[in-house]
Design a protein that fits this description.
about 130 residues; 4 helices; Aminopeptidase; alpha+beta
């Protein structure tokens, strides 16, 4: 899981240090587990500069077809995020490729932007202003 989330091998101490810095008052973790291990995790982190927005990230280390797993976590993140936020932001540079694929399939994104904005009030995805 850590390789999928952090983009490479990370030591136990680095993970502990990272987790120690998480502001759990402004972070929601949504996890999916399988019979043997955690399968994927989504983090919704409030953007403190704009409390109506949150950043969404999803990691899935499985080697199988991740699309249904990522789709289920995206749906949950949208449901949970809509309780508190108007917008979820996905950073293209760090995003899971399957998540970007799901958002791209909505025909509401452009490839020239750094972020994708999910408008929770309307239930639609759209590209953020570049």
């Amino acid at each position: 899981m850590r390789r999928a989330y952090f983009g490479g091998g990370v030591s136990d101490q680095s993970v502990r240090d990272y987790c120690g810095t998480i502001d759990w008052d402004h972070t929601t973790a949504i996890a999916r587990t399988g019979p043997y291990c955690p399968e994927a995790i989504a983090l919704v982190v409030s953007l403190l500069s704009n409390d109506a927005c949150a950043e969404l990230s999803i990691a899935c280390p499985l080697l199988c077809d991740q699309r249904p797993i990522i789709a289920a976590l995206l749906d949950l993140a949208i449901e949970i995020g809509a309780l508190q936020y108007r917008t979820l932001i996905v950073n293209r540079e760090f995003a899971n490729p399957e998540l970007l694929s799901l958002l791209r399939d909505s025909d509401l994104t452009r490839s020239d932007c750094e972020t994708v904005e999910i408008n929770l009030a309307d239930g639609h995805s759209r590209t953020a202003a570049c």
